[in-house]
Design goal:
- By secondary structure, this protein is α/β, with parallel strands linked by helices.
- The chain has one domain: Alpha-Beta Barrel (TIM Barrel), CATH 3.20.20.70.
- Helices cover about 40% and strands about 20% of the residues.
- It is built from eleven helices and twelve strands.
- The protein has an eight-stranded parallel barrel with strand order 1-4-5-8-9-10-11-12, surrounded by seven helices. A two-stranded antiparallel sheet has the order 6-7.
- Helix 2 packs across helix 3, helix 3 runs parallel beside helix 4 and helix 4 crosses helix 5.
- It is globular and about 75 Å long.
- The N and C termini lie far apart (about 45 Å).
- Ligand PBG binds next to helix 6.
Length: about 325
C-alpha cells in the first residue's frame, strides 16, 4: 500500500516534534566574546554591531555577573588598545598590567567560576593592524610566535584558563604549548583558531577593536575561502602540536568544513559565528525583512547540527533570554 511510511507523522504537533528533535541549543553551548576598553563607566555600543558593547573594567564586572546568573559560563576576551600603546612588536601585549591582564583578573573576581579564554594575536596591539610582526611589508612567522608564546604566559599568569590564538601563524600551537609547560602552566589550555579563513565577515569586529589592517590584507596567513583539504591539514597539525579545542571560523558560510572536521578529529570543535554574521541578522531584522529570533535560532541550530560542540556567538544572551 502506498505510502507505507508517512514522514509527516513525526511532525504532527509540537510534542512529537520536540520528542524527535536531534539538535538542541542550551546555554552550555556558548562562549561569549567580550570587548574591553580603558576608562570608567564606559559602555559603548559598537556601530556595526547593534546591542553589542565595549565595556570598561568596572562595567565588565556587572556584565560578567549577569552572564554568570544567566548560566553563561565561558567568555572570550578581546581588548581595544589605545593607539599610543600600539607598535610593530605588540609590546603592550605582554605588559603584566595591560588591559587584557586586568580584564582577566576582573572577570575572575566578579565570577570565580567563569571559564576565561583570551584572544592571542597581535592585531589589536599592532600599529599595522596585522596579527604578526611586520618587516618589508611581510608578516614574520617565527618572530611572531615568540611574542604569542610570551603573551600566552602573561595571560596564564593573570589567571586565564585557556588561550585562544587567532593569528594563523605556522607552528604557534607547539611554541605556545611548550612555553606554557616550561612555566608550569600545564593546566592552561589552548583553543586554536585552526581553520580561520580570510573572510570579509570580520568587518564589524575590526570596527569594534579598531584593528583593521593598515596595509594589504590577511591573505598570507588566514586561509583562502576556496579551500577545503587545507582546513583539515591545518586542524590536524594544530592537534598534533597540542591544541585542546580546534575552531572553524566563520560559521554559517563554512558548515561543510565544520562537518568534515567534526568527522575527522576527536577533540571538541568550536565554531565562531563572527561579527558580520551577527550584523547581517541585526540589520535585516531592523528593516523588518527577517524575523530576528527565528533566523538567529535557525543559524545556531545549523551550526550545531553541522558539528559544533562549542559556539562563540554574540547572540548568547539573546538566546538564553529566548529560551527562558
Ligand atoms: C583577530 C581576530 C579577528 C576575529 C577574532 N580575532 C579578526 C581578524 O582576524 O581580522 C574576528 C571575530 C569576528 O569577526 O567576530 N585576530
Amino acid at each position: 500500500m502506498f505510502p507505507l511510511r508517512r514522514n509527516r507523522r513525526l511532525r504532527t504537533n509540537d510534542a512529537i516534534r520536540s520528542l524527535v528533535r536531534e539538535t538542541i541549543i542550551t546555554p552550555n553551548d556558548f562562549l561569549v566574546p567580550l570587548f574591553v576598553v580603558e576608562g570608567k563607566g564606559v559602555k559603548e555600543e559598537i556601530a556595526s554591531m547593534p546591542n553589542y558593547y565595549r565595556y570598561s573594567l568596572d562595567l565588565l564586572e556587572n556584565e560578567v555577573k549577569e552572564l554568570w546568573k544567566m548560566g553563561l559560563k565561558s567568555v572570550l576576551l578581546f581588548v581595544k588598545v589605545p593607539d599610543n600603546l600600539k607598535d610593530n612588536e605588540g609590546t603592550e601585549a605582554i605588559n603584566p598590567n595591560g588591559l587584557m591582564q586586568r580584564a582577566i583578573q576582573t572577570v575572575k573576581s566578579a565570577a570565580p567560576g567563569m571559564f576565561v579564554m583570551t584572544d592571542v594575536a597581535l592585531d589589536p596591539y599592532s600599529s599595522y593592524g596585522h596579527d604578526g610582526i611586520v618587516a618589508d611589508g611581510k608578516i614574520l612567522n617565527d618572530e611572531t610566535n615568540e611574542v604569542l608564546a610570551q603573551m600566552s604566559i602573561s595571560h596564564a599568569q593573570a589567571g586565564a584558563d585557556m588561550v585562544a590564538p587567532s593569528d594563523m601563524m605556522d607552528g604557534r600551537i607547539l611554541e605556545i604549548r611548550e612555553a606554557l609547560d616550561e612555566e608550569n602552566f600545564i593546566d592552561t589550555g589552548i583553543m586554536s583558531y585552526s581553520a580561520k579563513y580570510a573572510s570579509a565577515f570580520y568587518g564589524p569586529f575590526r570596527d569594534a577593536l579598531d584593528s583593521a589592517p593598515g596595509f594589504g590584507d590577511k591573505k598570507t596567513y588566514q586561509m583562502d575561502p576556496a579551500n577545503r583539504f587545507e582546513a583539515i591539514r591545518e586542524t590536524e597539525m594544530d592537534i598534533d602540536e597540542g591544541a585542546d579545542i580546534v575552531m572553524v571560523k566563520p560559521g554559517i558560510a563554512y558548515l561543510d568544513i565544520v562537518r568534515e572536521i567534526k568527522n575527522e578529529v576527536d577533540v571538541p570543535v568550536s565554531v565562531y559565528q563572527v561579527s558580520g554574521e551577527y550584523a547581517m541578522i541585526k540589520a535585516a531584522a531592523a528593516k523588518g525583512w527577517l524575523d530576528h529570533d527565528a533566523v538567529m535560532m535557525e543559524q545556531l541550530i545549523a551550526i550545531k547540527r553541522a558539528g559544533a560542540d562549542i559556539i562563540a556567538s554574540y547572540f548568547a544572551k539573546d538566546v538564553v533570554r529566548l529560551l527562558s
